Amino acid sequence: MLVGLNEQNELPPHVAAPSPTAPHGPSGLGGGVGVDRVPGLGHSGGGSTLLGYIGIDTIIEQMRKKTMKAGFDFNIMIVGHSGLGKSTLVNTLFKSQVSRWSSGWGSEHKIPKTVEIKAVSHVIEEGGVKMKLTVIDTPGFGDQINNENCWDPISKYINEQYEKFLKEEVNIARKKRIPDTRVHCCLYFISPTGHSLRQLDIEFMKHLSRVVNIIPVIAKSDTMTPDEKNEFKHRVRKELETHGIEYYPQNEFDDDMEDKNENDKIREAMPFAVVGSDKEFQVNGKRVLGRKTAWGVVEVENPNHCEFALLRDFLIRSHLQDLKEVTHNIHYETYRARRLNDNGGLSDVKVMCQFPLTL
Ligand code: GDP
Ligand code: MG
């Protein structure tokens, strides 16, 4: 069940304390040409002549302020069978106990009879920017003897979030900012067997890659030697290709050559072989997150030890916004178009819009 946070992230009607000359209204640049004085910019010329500064570049600062005020939603789903280190990895990623099930694993851990969907939300703040992070766990996935169609509840959950968003969108009195519960990214944990993907891995990714951004990762990679790891990664990539499984970042959605070059490098390095831990150790006088073994500490953030840092940088520092955009522009759009077509409108969407929808 989704643990709802209050909606404190709603955009207030007037964002930021506007300067007397700052453009107002949703168009942002609407009346901006008359700017003759933008405080604090310190550019040469003062902008009062016809050839002077207009201030278009302040849009970046305006957007930054709005984002800071409003915060943003990021929803990440974790899938893979029990004990693969899903909860630990998410906690390592966000440096906190964001997954409720992090510490409870052990002899008492009960394996659910069917796949459950559990979403927990947290607000994380860094540098004045608020992120409402929702971690959607799927305990029970892959744990049964017969795992046939065990992705059904997961796929249903993903579609339900699209439906929720769609209903909000067509509401006459729709919210200025629709709460976004759509799954932006699904981390799929592959067991570090060193052999090949299981049938279930293939089936899951095949079905779900059409509706959500799948990022496959090799779990607990500290259990493999570097050679085994590289060979396994290579094999997994080949198998994904053979089965036509498109994981994120999908080739077809590269924006331009620069994007393609950057994403090619990422695709060649995937699936990232990760290690998670919430324990700190002292290594060369520094405290690091790691796993202590008889031979030393496996440092989670050390790129020579595993690819956790690569995954973290990719997921959060370079592609977070893109994950949200692909979810909205591709996956949600596909759902929305299908839904509108199927229904010849939105007959069973409760609150009807009286105006034609702009598609
Ligand atoms: P989940 O069931 O997939 O959520 O798995 P947990 O995160 O609860 O972890 C299961 C067990 O594996 C715990 O004892 C963790 O300490 C351990 N574990 C988690 N991540 C790793 C890892 O990267 N490597 C190793 N060797 N063990 C891990
Ligand atoms: Mg767990």
TrEMBL record:
It is found in: Cytoplasm. Keywords: Cytoplasm, GTP-binding, Nucleotide-binding. Residues 1-33 are annotated as: Disordered. InterPro entries: G_SEPTIN_dom, P-loop_NTPase, Septin, Septin3. GO terms for cellular component: cytoplasm. Signal peptide: none annotated. Pfam families: Septin. Residues 70-342 form the Septin-type G domain. One of its GO terms (molecular function) is GTP binding. Belongs to the TRAFAC class TrmE-Era-EngA-EngB-Septin-like GTPase superfamily. Septin GTPase family. This is Septin.
